[in-house]
TrEMBL record:
It comes from the Bacteria. This is Nucleotidyltransferase family protein. It comes from Streptomyces argyrophylli. InterPro entries: NT_sf (IPR043519). The lineage of its organism: Bacteria, Bacillati, Actinomycetota, Actinomycetes, Kitasatosporales. SUPFAM superfamilies: Nucleotidyltransferase (SSF81301).
Amino acid sequence: MTHNGEDTASLRRPDVTELRLASDGPDLEFSSAPEPAQLPHDRSQAILEATKEIGSLLKRAGHPFALAGSVAVYAHGGSRYLQHDADFAILPDDAEAVAAALSEAGLPVRTPPEDWLLKTTCHGQNVDIIFALAHRPVTRDMLDRAHVLPVDSVLMPVLSPTDLIRSLISAFSEHYCDFGSVLPVARAVREKVDWDEVRTTCGGEPMPAAFLFLLERLNVIDAQEGQS
């Protein structure tokens, strides 16, 4: 789920000419150099364009899904400063059919060493098609809880804030514990999250529990009842 930034295409002066040999004789002729290509959208907009195309494709194909990751946070009112890629959660049993739909649409499909996702590329952006979140399979109930929200004007299902936060902090472990990247997300959606549900389902693990304690100390969320 690289920092955002604008990719700057190399520019050529439009008044530069190229010297080439004419095909029908020894005379020389001059031709104007091609006009420089338009500068690309900023990285966040490129990720949104990829999200809209993949989301529309999955809707047309009838595959249940929910948007996840940083674009889901954006859809719930978080920062438009998007990072890395777009993420879609699908059912494990639909992985093969979704891969076929992407291939039929002309998109490359790659199977990485991890056995819980597929990868594709759209508008030059990486897109992860995920069928397990934090080592737990995506379920029909999770997709049914998704909220249908506009993503840059395209409606699509988005993981509920509670499922989104749960998936992010359940991934914390001794080997990966980047509280700093998830803290702004928790701040952005804190009023929409069922924190009791989050505590019940993943608060017993050391790293998620430490993050919840941090949120309490920073007054992002209320302390659990019965704790001082």
